């Protein structure tokens, strides 16, 4: 075990007593028993926030440790036991405390708590006792997905690879190597497809029951309220899908066709289009700016220092404190994310790096989330006021992908930097159809699919959408069963209805970068100011604080696509 991994393991260590409900129950009971007047509320909220932060930190550490050890039965069982024995009484107690707060006569929340007071009220109205235990089942079902995919292996040319390692081969300039990697990944995915099918059917049934228990028409209606989507409607999302079809898909198709022509190809096959990563027209090897996780950290540190010394220091704090686990290895969940430990206001980044330029971009992305945690945590004492609504939460991360673009001369020479920048801009264009497809699929699945929906129905719908949003990928002669299972993706299982936010925030991040090109210092200061607001203002206000508009309509998308085309032409 490396020194860095030892620091990570220590950081994720949880005292034995912290995994028992009895560790938290007396403090929650004291809050319930304490007489409460309007004047008492601020101090009472501070105590409640501190206990919630401790419980949340324990849950997050156990979950993260389980993700780092998907092949460790004891780690999985410890987390699942916590979910089953601690989270239900915590949910019931949270509802009782919320009802106590809402019943305080003559209480008017302070401006920085007004939004969360309204959210507390709305969440209390959704609470159903039947959904407490069913929520445990839901978490257990999602964990089955993590275990299945975390232990997935790929056999390629006699080697056993992790999913991230195999995906790296899709960036090879050798088309035969790309095709072999694609077939190996497809074989690996199909080997677990039936298991994931079973998980998905269980999740659909559970999610529908959660909605029925909450007296909602369907699961989309429930999630709309759970996610506090008050600034836009399902109809707005439908309009976004149409706008992407009209304004982005033709541009993406043209970029793909141009690349195919430069490569001397008459069509682009699935192994030629790795969701935004196209083969280099000049046949150059994929950019590989580092080999080890430690090297990546050094490169990133210098980039953050170029943007701002304060950002660099926060990243150094993460390095020193065991808050980064970047290397890919067997038994580790293959996704990337930023976790948060609220007691000490510490973000934690999990990745699976294999040496690619995209790893660099993803690290900037996840550490952007970390900066959000740092800044909102310092500015907002109450745990519920930290971070932000999910429609904004990807702006700190995607914004950092762009704000670092002009600070990478130590990573790449001029030619390589131009390639990296070009790929970053083009990646936005290629991402939007994928985001629209993911969102459209979930609207269908949770609000329109038949009651007796089967896996074949999911496959059929996914194929229909894929042909709409990705018409430029040629599957002729291939087994489209593999294409049809494209819905077997992390967010569909783990965070339903969380995907259109990536598109909203990517559009905003491009806007922030556009402003930064005219006023770098001002754009960065607005970025930080918006992060400090946390969860205390509305989504449109957060966007305005960051210097952009909360829009994702056709006209706005058209304007940003024009800007990106201009930037690509000059790249």
UniProtKB/TrEMBL annotation:
Keywords from the UniProt entry: Hydrolase, Metal-binding, Metalloprotease, Protease, Zinc
Keyword Hydrolase: yes
Domain Peptidase M3A/M3B catalytic: 171-560
Cofactor binding, per record: Binds 1 zinc ion.
Cofactor: Zn(2+)
SUPFAM superfamilies: Metalloproteases ('zincins'), catalytic domain
PANTHER family: PROTEASE M3 THIMET OLIGOPEPTIDASE-RELATED, PUTATIVE-RELATED
Family: Belongs to the peptidase M3 family.
Protein name (database record): Oligoendopeptidase F
Organism: Deinococcus aerophilus
């Amino acid at each position: 075990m490396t020194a860095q991994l030892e620091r990570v393991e220590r950081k994720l260590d949880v005292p034995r007593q912290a995994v028992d409900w009895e560790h938290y129950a007396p403090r929650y009971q004291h809050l319930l028993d304490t007489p409460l007047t309007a004047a008492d509320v601020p101090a009472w909220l501070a105590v409640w926030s501190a206990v919630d932060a401790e419980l949340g930190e324990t849950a997050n550490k156990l979950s993260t440790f389980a993700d780092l050890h998907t092949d460790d039965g004891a780690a999985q069982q410890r987390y699942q036991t916590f979910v089953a024995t601690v989270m239900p009484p915590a949910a019931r107690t949270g509802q009782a405390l919320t009802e106590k707060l809402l019943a305080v006569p003559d209480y008017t929340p302070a401006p920085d708590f007004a939004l969360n007071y309204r959210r507390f009220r709305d969440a209390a109205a959704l609470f159903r006792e039947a959904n407490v235990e069913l929520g445990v089942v839901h978490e257990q079902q999602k964990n089955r997905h993590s275990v299945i995919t975390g232990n997935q292996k790929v056999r390629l040319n006699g080697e056993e690879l992790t999913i991230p390692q195999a995906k790296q081969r899709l960036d090879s300039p050798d088309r035969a190597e790309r095709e072999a990697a694609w077939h190996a990944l497809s074989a690996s995915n199909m080997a677990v497809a039936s298991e994931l099918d079973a998980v998905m059917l269980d999740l659909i049934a559970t999610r529908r029951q959660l909605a029925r228990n909450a007296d909602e028409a369907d699961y989309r209606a429930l999630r709309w309220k759970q996610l506090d989507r008050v600034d836009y409607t399902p109809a707005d999302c439908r309009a976004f899908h149409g706008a992407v079809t009209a304004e982005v898909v033709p541009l993406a198709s043209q970029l793909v066709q141009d690349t195919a022509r430069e490569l001397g190809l008459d069509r682009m096959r699935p192994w030629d289009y790795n969701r935004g990563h196209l083969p280099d027209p000049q046949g150059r090897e994929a950019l590989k700016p580092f080999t080890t996780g430690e090297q990546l950290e050094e490169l990133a540190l210098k980039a953050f220092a170029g943007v701002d010394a304060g950002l660099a220091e926060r990243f150094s704090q993460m390095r020193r404190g065991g808050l980064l686990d970047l290397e890919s290895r067997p038994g580790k969940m293959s996704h990337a994310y930023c976790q948060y430990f609220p007691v000490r206001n510490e973000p934690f980044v999990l990745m699976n790096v294999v040496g690619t330029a995209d790893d660099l971009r993803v690290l900037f992305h996840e550490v952007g989330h970390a900066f959000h945690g740092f800044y909102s945590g310092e500015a907002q004492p109450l745990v519920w006021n930290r971070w932000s609504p999910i429609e904004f939460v990807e702006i700190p991360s995607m914004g950092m992908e762009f704000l670092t673009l002009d600070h990478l001369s130590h990573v790449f020479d001029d030619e390589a930097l131009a390639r990296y920048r070009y790929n970053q801009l083009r990646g936005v264009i290629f991402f939007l159809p994928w985001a629209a497809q993911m969102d459209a699929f979930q609207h269908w699945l949770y609000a329109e699919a038949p009651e007796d929906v089967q896996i074949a129905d999911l496959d059929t719908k996914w194929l229909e959408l894929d042909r709409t949003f990705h018409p430029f990928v040629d599957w002729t002669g291939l087994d489209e069963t593999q294409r049809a299972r494209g819905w077997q993706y992390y967010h569909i299982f783990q965070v339903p209805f969380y995907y259109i936010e990536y598109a909203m925030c990517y559009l905003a991040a491009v806007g922030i970068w556009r402003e930064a090109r005219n006023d770098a210092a001002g754009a960065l200061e607005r970025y930080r100011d918006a992060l400090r607001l946390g969860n205390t203002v509305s989504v449109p206000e957060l966007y305005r604080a960051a210097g952009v508009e909360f829009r994702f309509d056709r006209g706005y998308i058209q304007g940003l696509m024009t800007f990106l085309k201009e930037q690509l032409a000059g790249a």
